[in-house]
Design goal:
By secondary structure, the chain is an alpha/beta fold. It folds into two domains: about 100 residues, no CATH class; about 140 residues, Ribonuclease H-like superfamily/Ribonuclease H (Nucleotidyltransferase, domain 5). Helix 2 crosses helix 9 and helix 5 packs across helix 6.
Length: about 300
Amino acid sequence: MSILSRKEFHDEQAAYDYVEARVWPHGATCPKCGERDRVSKMGGKSTRIGAYKCYKCRKPFTVKVGTIFESSHVPMHIWLQAIYLMCASKKGISSNQLHRTLGVTLKTAWFMSHRIREAMRTEGGAFGVGGGSVEIDETFIGKEPGVTKTKTARGGAHKMKVLTLVDRDTRTAKSVVIDDLRVDTMAKAVAENMSREARMITDEYRQYKHMAKDVAAQHEFVRHSAGEYVRQDDPEIHTNTVEGFYSVFKRGMKGVYQHCQKQHLHRYAAEFDFRYNNRAAKEISDTVRADIALTGIVGKRLTYQTIGA
């Protein structure tokens, strides 16, 4: 039987029950005052599905309040379908495809996908704790706003820039959108996401050499310009892991999403980070990945004006 045949993908009450079980593992909790004991489910034929009342602050609420679902008129079971489809699509799923598959308008599909990406987004961590190895590389996507490509311009100066760190020990990735490739800009992004005691592994790009002493305990690199992709004297020195991450990221950005404004790029990057960090290689199924995304919906509310600004 298809996973999308499950009850929570078609029945609204079942969908609310499914989300409540993951957002409120210890029972319904008032999002206004945090009360858990003096809370009860509201009854009556005219009562909306999933409505509760807090008898401490006297406010009614549902599991949508304070999450990416707040103020949305899209049925909860449609939200669950969208989350599952985005979590199960290795290279992403376009708003046009969601619009056609879910039967919502294109504008609604675009809005939903950005809210879901926000649920997938995590704050900076500490890669390379305990002296672990962290691969770092940069890539170029689309076009930098306000920058015109010239005949004398070199490399990706006219493109948007993404810096990605991959921790080999935890097998997780973190991508950061940066404005330029200056040493201080790149060093700041690395320092915010990598432990000072880490071993940094990069290619021979000079910016990494200049920042290494300030952000890492050790710096190793391979010389791609000389045809070296794995250090002969130490097979652990390579950037193949982060480049493998980019192979999926760039296929998705070019083949599925195609056009992305810089103000939204950090959410698209977070989407690919999320799927990579919760991938099948870690024995995480599509269903479990969608459940993990659901745990990130709280406190992530976005308005259309916020996203479209």
